[in-house]
Design brief:
With 80 residues, this protein is mainly α. The protein has helices at residues 2-32, 36-72.
Amino acid sequence: MVFEFEERADHIDQLSKLLSVMQDVGRKLADESHGRSYDKVREFSQILHLARERLDAIEQEERRQFLLERRRAPRSSYEN
């Protein structure tokens, strides 16, 4: 159970870092864009922002589920 949570948490962390880099590059592109492409770059940046918010929600739900599963798990005699 803990290993699965840690693996999922690692994947979420990797995605978060990737989104962060993409947002930074998107901001730079928006600053350098002119004319027609500027609106599309801003729209893309908004999509990345929404993706980051969704990833944060997924991370919170994963933590909540992990804590619920941990509470339900039978305790071994050495934990008492």
